[in-house]
Every structure is written in structure tokens, then in C-alpha cells.
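Hi R.,

Here are the chain sequences for the assembly we discussed:
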Amino acid sequence: MKTETLRLWLDERLGIGALGGLARKKTVPLHRHTIWYYFGGMTLFLFTIQVGTGILLLLYYRPSAENAFESVQFIMTDVQFGWLIRSIHSWSANLMIAVLLIHMFSVFFMKAYRSPREITWLTGGLLLFIVLGFGFSGYLLPWNKLAFFATKVGTDIAGVVPGAGKFLLRFLRGGDEVTGATLTRFFGFHVAVLPAITTMLVAVHVILVQKHGMSTPSSLKDPALKTMKFVPNFLLRDLIGWVLAVGVLAALAAIFPWELGEKADAFASAPAGIRPEWYFLFMFETLKRIPAKVFVFDGEVVGIMTFGIGGLFWLIAPFLDTSQSKKRMSRFFTIFGVLVVLYIAAMTLVGFLA
Amino acid sequence: MSLANDTRPGQSAPESRSRRKFLDYLLGTSAGMTLVAVFYPVIRFMIPPEIIESAQTSVVAGKVKELAQNSGLIFKFGNKPGILIRSASGELKAFSATCTHLDCIVQYRSDQKLIWCACHNGQYNLSGHNIGGPPPRPLEEYAVNVRGDDIVVSKA
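And here is the predicted structure of the full complex:
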């Protein structure tokens, strides 16, 4: 009786009952591609792991060129379970990007970005960009040699953008060179600016998914299509995946604790065998292979502009692939997507084998 | 939103409309300028100030005795790295160590007798010319003089 009174009191003030109704009504279509619906929720779950472990790391991390490396060393060697928290943070980051990419490509190939879900796709695309920003800014924070050169190269790439390049480079580096000023700035991006933007984008993204419901591929549209209740049936299946993910993360962290490397030195040559994280590898390999000059342009400019235009094309796909009736257009996008996947996979593989 | 609803008794519609428009204009511009006044300093704050480089034109990069033939070392030239090389024949050369491709720091490869960038496999010969890989331009060359045991590197 008491709890019922409390529930009514709260509902009168917060209107939680409406949310419950929404949850009860939500269903998930059942068909042979239902498995792909789990990857969005998995990405969100791994993001919450990032927030949790990130807050814990903040208790010991010191964001300055003099202290950063030593503070991470301290976390790895002296703080109880420090190695575990940091390793989970790093592994979960990589896993999150992998799962996010699977989520994105599955949405692309199922053409789930089509009307009326264009804005859901756009917010998702921006979230990918933000997540790569998280990866790039977080990579520098231990202030080791690999991170130092990765940041030099990455920010120099931003400097190639026509017109805004010089501004972007100085904005990102906090000056003309990669220094302690860059580290402070990246720290601010990583723990404040990007989380704030992510929170807003995720909110819009998830609300839109609720509004439009799950998209069913047009080839499977059938009035007799079975559905599953989101609460509790789908959510419980989600939960199994999340528990498995925690197990995988703990195992990875215990078996392969994340390395720290050597402290950054602004007056040392780039170490041999240097390469970026796997999700930047395909771009890295491409930049390595483009000759110094393509016609009259610098090779690096051509490469970077091509990636920029390609990414933009990918982002605006829903506005170009509009109609389900235009079969030819649709096939073009499928082939385009396959080529993109093949190119990324091939270049990544080459990068690993090199 | 109909105009009739906005009209107060005793006022004619056109007069009210122009007054409303004028007030909207004032409100709009005030709000706009307030936003500008808030965000202009914020944006300027985010752009890092220019730091004037000390106009250093020469530096002692190393000692002749400490630099073996067919080897190289990285030295500080102001706040930028330089590379000093003693070739197999004993000749001293100095360049900017910043790769012209994407800003990495190059190194001397004694096995290939050339300057190499580990980041994207860029190669330069001992005159600083880009001879392989993605670098688009040669490395900037510095003048080298020996004073006693000191190797002095200076900008031309």
C-alpha cells in the first residue's frame, strides 16, 4: 500500500506512468536480420563503461606534459586495480568503435537510413565522428612516444584542409607545435567537450529510434511479420550481450593489459614501426602509398580531401538514396557500401601485415 | 497568430503592426548582439595566442668527437628539432628534422645512408632532397661550421 501511494505521488509529479506505457508498447520486428538490432544498444552499453572507467581514471590522472606519463604509470603499477580500470577503458574504447562500425554498416546495408530516419542517420554519423575524436584525443593522454607522433600527424592532417587548415591546426594544438598545451587541450576535449556533445547527440538519436521504431528492410516487409516485446523480451537479450561484453573486457584486460610505452620526447626521431590505432590504419596506409605529387597537387592533400569528400557522401546518403522504388539508385548504394567495406578491410589488413 | 488578436482597442491595425515590427527588431538585434558579446570572447579565448619565437639563428648542435662517421643525431634548434649527420665520408650536414609530409621527426639510416621518416616511410638523400615515399618537398638545409670541437649549425 505504502509503495503504491509513493508510486502515485511520484507519477503525479514526474509522469513516469507515460514512460511505462511507451515501454510496454515498444516492439522489435522478428526476421532473419534481427540480430543487427543489438549492436546499437551494445555501443551505448560500452559507452557507459567508458564513462564509468573514465571517471575513475580522473581520480589519479594529471593532465600536463610533466606529470601525465608518470601519473598513468602510477595508475598501472601502484593504484589497486589501476591496471584493470585503465585496460578496460582502452579495450572498451576499441570494442565500442568496432561495434559502432558494425552497427553503422548494418544500418547502411539494410537501408534503414531512408525516410523518415535521415536525421537518426545524421546524428549517428556525427556520433561516429565524435567517437573517433574521443579515440584520437584519449590516445594522447598517456603522453608516450607513439601518441606524440600520432598527434603530430593527425593534427597536421587537419592543417591540410583548404582555407581553415592553419586555424584548425593551431586550435587543435593550442599553438604551432604539439606541446603540453596540446595535452591540456585534448584532455579538456576528451573529458568535457566531447562527452557534452555526445550526451546531446545520443539523446536525440535514441529518442528518434523510439519515435520511428525499428526499421524493417523493405524486402522483408510483410504484415504478418512477427514482433517481440522490447520490455522485457528484447531488453533481457540485450542484457545477456552486455554481461558477455563485461566478461570479454575483463578477460582482455587481464590477459592483455594495455601498454604504456616510452615517455614522449619532442626531440627524438619517430620510432620505427610506428602506426596508428587499427581504426585509423586504412587512412594511414593510403597516405603512405600516395606519391608526393598527384598532377600538380601534393599527394597528402589529395588523399585527405578524398577521405573528407567520401565521408561527407556517406553522411548524406539518405538524401541521395531517397526512394525505395528507385531500384537502380539503391543498388548503386549497396555496391558503393560493399566497395567501402572491402577497401577499408583490405587496407587495414595490409597495415597489420606491413 | 492572426493580426486581429494583436490589435488593442483604440489602435489601428497598421500602426500596431509597424510598432510590433519595430519592437521585434529591437528585441532581435539586442538578443543577437548579446549573443555576439558572449561568444566573441569565448571564441577568441579558444584560439591560442601567437608565441614569438626567439630569433635564434645558430646553435651548437654537437661535438665532432661524439659524432661517429655514418651517424646522425637530433638537436634542438630553438623550439624545433634539427638533424645533424656525419656521412660515411666524414662530411657534416644539417637539416630541419621535421618531415615535410606530415610533421614527424626524421632519422638517419646508417644502413641505407639516407634520411628516413618512420611514420610514412619517407626518404631523403644527404642533400635533403625527397627521393622516395610521400614527402612533397626537400628538408630545409642549414649551414654547418666547426669551431674547435663544437659543431655550429646556422640558418642561411
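The helical segments of chain B are 3-6, 13-46. The radius of gyration of chain B is 32 Å.

Let me know if anything looks off.

Best,
T.
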